[in-house]
């Protein structure tokens, strides 16, 4: 059994790390410019295009995503202006946010290579949006970014405290318990809480924070219960996707989740098949 004093000291360490990240790892200037334009009633679409054009890597990412089959826009999109128009300001914001947030923290390869983290996140984002649309969630397209960002708490642990992350993984394996439970015992908080705290520091929407916080424990979510249950299900699928074993998803998720979502295994299997194709294509676009 872990010493309560050790747990408190680990929790303090995580809090200190988050404060350190707030001071040293801020979202880049291009994201701040996009946020400022959204808040400015005088801004128009060309202002957003100018901001995107100022960042070559972001320009390439926006064009690649806009041309992906997942978004299904007609014809080839070969100008930033058209890409931004087709994506819309909301989805542009989400794309800039996700790529900026993940790029702001560096992963040690011995825990999880960055490409593997991106594969996990892209599959999660695509499946989240597909299921949200299928289940008639309002503004389902905005859930794409939460699918990209809900693991950011693990990104903090992997990047800043890899030894603690490894200990949590070992504790999970040895006790045959879920990873977030092992993290709670070892650190005094789990990756969902860490991610939500970081999102709060970055002034991201409160509902983003809530969904990320309670995704590992959806039964405790005070609000956004369907969205939280959806991300919980998506993570179970993503874990199996990365491991290469996409079977028996229904055994990994409690009956309550299926009831909350009003979803059955056949519907999920269909969405997963679509997500596998779309995520594979987006991986090629992002990494080639």
Short description:
The chain is built from 16 helices and no strands.
Question: Keywords, please?
Answer:
288 residues, mainly alpha, 0% strand
Polypeptide structure, described:
The mean pLDDT is 84. This protein has helices at residues 4-24, 29-39, 45-53, 56-66, 80-103, 114-134, 143-149, 152-160, 162-175, 179-187, 191-201, 206-214, 225-243, 249-252, 255-261, 265-287. The protein contains 16 helices and no strands. Helix 1 runs parallel beside helix 11, helix 11 runs antiparallel to helix 12 (206-214) and helix 12 (206-214) packs across helix 13.
Per-chain topology:
Layout: H1 4-24, H2 29-39, H3 45-53, H4 56-66, H5 80-103, H6 114-134, H7 143-149, H8 152-160, H9 162-175, H10 179-187, H11 191-201, H12 206-214, H13 225-243, H14 249-252, H15 255-261, H16 265-287
Report the end-to-end length measured between terminal Cα atoms: 47 Å
The SSE order reads: HHHHHHHHHHHHHHHH
Number of strands: 0
User: What is the 3D shape?
Assistant: globular
- Write down the overall mean pLDDT: 84
| Rg of Cα set | 19 Å
Number of helices: 16
Structural class, judged by helices and strands?
mainly alpha
Sheet of most strands:
none
- The amount of helix comes to over 70%
What proportion strand? under 5%
Which parts are unreliable, with pLDDT below 50 for 5 consecutive residues or more? none
Oligomeric form? single chain
């Amino acid at each position: 059994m872990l010493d309560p004093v050790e747990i408190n000291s680990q929790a303090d360490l995580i809090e200190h790390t988050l404060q350190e990240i707030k001071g040293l790892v801020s979202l880049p200037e291009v994201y701040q410019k996009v946020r400022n334009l959204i808040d400015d009633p005088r801004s128009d679409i060309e202002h957003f295009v100018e901001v995107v054009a100022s960042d070559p890597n972001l320009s390439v990412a926006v064009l690649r995503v806009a041309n992906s089959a997942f978004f299904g826009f007609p014809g080839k999109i070969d100008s930033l202006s058209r890409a931004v128009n087709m994506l819309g300001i909301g989805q542009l914001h989400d794309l800039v946010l996700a790529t900026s947030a993940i790029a702001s923290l560096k992963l040690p390869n011995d825990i999880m290579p960055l490409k593997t983290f991106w594969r996990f996140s892209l599959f999660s984002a695509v499946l989240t949006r597909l299921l949200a649309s299928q289940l008639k969630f309002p503004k389902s397209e905005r859930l794409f970014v939460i699918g990209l960002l809900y693991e950011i708490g693990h990104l903090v642990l992997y990047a800043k405290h890899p030894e603690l992350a490894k200990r949590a993984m070992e504790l999970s394996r040895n006790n045959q318990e879920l990873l977030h439970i092992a993290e709670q015992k070892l650190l005094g908080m789990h990756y969902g809480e860490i991610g939500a705290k970081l999102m709060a520091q970055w002034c991201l929407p409160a509902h983003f924070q809530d969904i990320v916080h309670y995704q590992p424990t959806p039964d405790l979510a005070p609000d956004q219960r369907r969205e939280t249950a959806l991300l919980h299900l998506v993570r179970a699928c993503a874990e199996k996707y990365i491991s290469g074993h996409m079977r028996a998803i229904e055994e990994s998720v409690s009956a309550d989740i299926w009831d909350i979502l009003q979803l059955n295994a056949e519907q999920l299997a269909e969405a997963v098949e679509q997500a596998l194709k779309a995520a594979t294509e987006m991986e090629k676009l992002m990494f080639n």
